[in-house]
Design goal:
heterodimer, A: 249 residues, alpha/beta, Rossmann fold, 2 domains, four-stranded parallel β-sheet, 13 helices, 8 strands, B: 473 residues, 3 domains, four-stranded mixed β-sheet
Chain lengths: 249, 473
């Protein structure tokens, strides 16, 4: 079990490149959720991507160069909150591997220790309490692979949804099965990816939920993109955006 | 993608279009994963057992040359013959030599993935030897002229209707029946006579114990035992990584193997073969030959990271849990070992230039690593092979085969953009402007075949954060 620090005064926020370009509302909502607990959010403007696309595609040197940039920018000892299990997993578990032969490895490890997935941080460090002000709704939850298997934070995410009194959470059949995104996989193996996302969508439809929630924008982009293509009237959103909308004034 | 000699993409399309295959696989996998889950229901105990299995396999690999020598010595002391084969061709010729020494023209075979690796049946057929598969699944696919599509359940891609049709068409005087018991009885009746007629029996090896010179074989049908005891000669083929140090290493590995493979505490038969028939014994083969096959394994062993590939105990559970394998089936992978373990083993055995496309068929979802009973870090090894595919200075045969100026340039540009705020901001700004035309270019063309194109925001998070006055440092 991970040891969690006491509530800090300041945190760094790592926005992720997908949130930056396609889902900024999710990023803003995550920031608001942290600020609401009286913690100052610092957003280094030079931040970009965690390096995972190159790391998984066979270009470790390029991944290392981009990772170095993040190591340089997030230099103060604040916790680094990441609204994505996948990018958090990359920075927490794979950075030390990426720099395994580097003389600066201890610095990398110290950086990795400061990485927290958003819902993990809200639950274990900020001990956030939510009061639901929204209308009754039924939702389902897609467990992203790296949030589940690298960060182990799925229960944290779901516990936040369960704090919302008017939200009914229906479990997805094959909840832990990959949706077929896999970063560049969706581009390199589009047919298999499509078969996977189709099965995921079928599972989502079976729940009767009005909305599917997730903690990773890659999966959401894949799932909602395929649902829209098929004109299926179920929406998909990042958990931070969903929660923020239901609790703020 | 045309980087591989076999057409992986065409195989994938064919498999995905086969609705029957998809439904057979999805049905079979649901039941196999559920059985495994039930047998390893105590998470803490399972973790301890996995750690033990991992330690046993790692220890064995670290002292592999020495263990193999001890195994050879002990087996010879026990009255077996031991043969070494560097290549599959050599291994095939050793088998043929033994058959010729006994003027044998009929071989009965138990299940063995190494013999598949050797393409033994084809080789023997070319040399006038009839080689009969006696494992039910292997028997079925041999009738259909196919190869296994799964390490443990070779005919997993077929349902009972398809098997009924095969039996009806390929076994003379067989009525069409879909009753499972009757199908079993048909196979049993056909095989009985063949065991008796088989002049040589061949099997694989699940584990070989260096300490005692014992070959350990697990099976459920009893056909394996027929192959290893009825004919006067028994040939066992094994990859040289299958050796373990001590007899006490067997029980934990056996539990991990049977639990992961079939969800059983133990299989119906566990054979511990320690030598041929002794003068005072009434049955068993008069000769046992053990063939140790290298086929690239010693090269894999020499790399500290890739060595972990050889920890594999061939339980097949990574296949059952792989979202890609369960969609495309084993034949699509084009080589002997499919699924996650095949993704790391095949390119190392065959060379990246021949099989380097296979490691792209993974989302790196980590399901395989999560279930692997001996904790092989399969996703890490997939990444390593992807790196090697582009690396002109790599060490895996066929490394660097994929490197093109264009792709290298794209990633260089990507790194540049992600290291410079100005460039990054420019790209982010351009995304919503360019995205309507992007589906006609490059990667988004494939993406938009089944999905709407990603909608890029007019205002990035960077811009929104700045407007809100959130501090930069």
């Amino acid at each position: 079990m991970r040891q969690y620090p006491p509530k800090p005064e300041k945190v760094y926020f790592f926005g992720t490149c997908l949130i930056d370009m396609a889902y900024p509302e999710a990023g803003m909502a995550a920031i608001h959720l942290i600020q609401r607990e009286g913690v100052e959010v610092v957003f280094p403007h030079e931040q970009s991507c965690c390096g995972q696309p190159a790391y998984n595609s066979g270009f470790p040197e390029e991944a290392r160069r981009v990772a170095e940039k993040q190591l340089e920018i997030f230099s103060k000892p604040y916790p680094i909150v990441v609204p994505s299990g996948s990018c958090a997993g990359m920075m927490r578990h794979h950075y030390p591997r990426l720099f395994a032969k580097d003389p600066g490895l201890s610095r990398v490890k110290a950086f990795s220790e400061r990485i927290f997935e958003l819902t993990e941080f809200l639950v274990h460090v900020l001990h956030i309490q939510l009061e639901d002000r929204g209308e009754p709704v039924t939702v389902t939850w897609h467990s992203s692979c790296h949030a589940a298997r690298e960060m182990g934070v799925i229960e944290d995410s779901k516990s936040l949804i369960r704090q919302l009194g008017n939200v009914k959470l229906v479990t997805l059949e094959n909840e832990h099965q990959c949706c077929g995104f896999g970063g560049t996989f969706a581009v390199k193996q589009p047919e298999i990816s499509e078969a996977m996302v189709t099965d995921k969508i079928d599972d989502i439809r079976k729940t009767g939920a009005a909305e599917v929630l997730g903690g990773d924008c890659g999966c959401l982009m894949n799932i909602t993109g395929a649902m829209s293509y098929r004109r299926i009237p179920i929406t998909g959103r990042h958990i931070a955006e969903f929660i923020w909308e239901r609790i703020h004034d | 993608m045309t980087e591989t000699q076999f057409d992986f993409q065409a195989n994938i399309r064919k498999a995905l279009a086969n609705r029957q295959l998809r439904s057979n696989l999805s049905f079979a996998m649901g039941s196999m994963t559920a059985k495994r889950k039930a047998i390893f229901s105590d998470a803490a105990a399972f973790e301890a057992l996995r750690a033990q299995g991992n330690a046993i396999r790692r220890r064995a690999l670290l002292q592999l040359p020495e263990l193999l020598e001890r195994l050879e010595k002990k087996c010879i002391e026990n009255g077996m013959s031991v043969h070494w084969a560097e290549t599959t061709d050599e291994a095939n010729r050793i088998v043929l030599g033994i058959l010729r020494d006994h003027h044998a023209r009929r071989l009965v075979k138990g299940k063995s993935m190494v013999s598949e690796e050797m393409h033994l049946n084809r080789f023997l057929a070319d040399h006038g030897v009839e080689s009969l598969e006696t494992d039910l699944g292997e028997f079925i696919i041999q009738l259909d002229g196919e190869t296994p599509s799964h390490i443990i359940v070779p005919a997993i891609h077929k349902n009972k209707q398809e098997i009924a049709r095969t039996f009806h068409e390929k076994i003379p005087n067989t009525p069409y029946t879909e009753a499972v018991e009757e199908l079993n009885a048909i196979a049993r009746k056909t095989l009985r006579r063949k065991f008796y007629e088989g002049e040589v029996g061949l099997s694989g090896v699940n584990m070989a114990v260096a300490e005692t010179g014992t070959l350990c074989l697990v099976e459920n049908e009893g056909n394996g035992r027929m192959c290893t005891t009825v004919p006067p000669v028994h040939i066992a083929v094994m990859g040289l990584e299958k050796v373990v140090e001590k007899l006490s290493d067997v029980p934990p590995l056996l539990r991990l193997l049977t639990g992961s493979a079939t969800g059983q505490l133990i299989t119906t038969y566990v054979n511990m073969i320690s030598g041929p028939r002794k003068p005072d014994e009434k049955d068993g083969p008069r000769e046992i030959h053990l063939i140790l096959l290298d086929n690239g394994r010693s090269r894999i062993l020499s790399d500290e990271q890739l060595r972990q590939t050889l920890q594999c105990i061939r339980c097949g559970t990574c296949l059952n849990h792989c979202p890609v394998y369960t969609r495309i089936g084993g034949h699509a992978y084009g080589f002997i070992y499919p699924g996650p373990i095949g993704e790391i083993l095949t390119p190392q055995m065959e060379g990246l230039d021949k099989a380097g496309g296979i490691p792209t068929a993974s989302t790196l979802c980590n399901a395989c690593e999560e279930v692997c009973p001996v904790k092989i870090p399969i996703p890490d090894l997939i990444r390593r092979l992807r790196n090697e595919s582009y690396d002109p200075n790599g060490s895996v045969p066929g490394h660097g085969f994929k490197r093109t100026f264009a792709e290298a340039a794209v990633w260089k540009a990507w790194a540049l953009v992600n290291r410079h705020r100005g460039l990054n901001a420019l790209v982010t700004k351009m995304a919503p402007v360019l995205s309507p035309i992007l589906p006609r270019l490059g990667p988004l063309e494939a993406w938009t075949r089944g999905r709407i194109r990603p909608r890029f925001s007019q205002k990035s998070l960077h811009e929104r954060v700045r407007e809100k006055g959130i501090k930069d440092a």
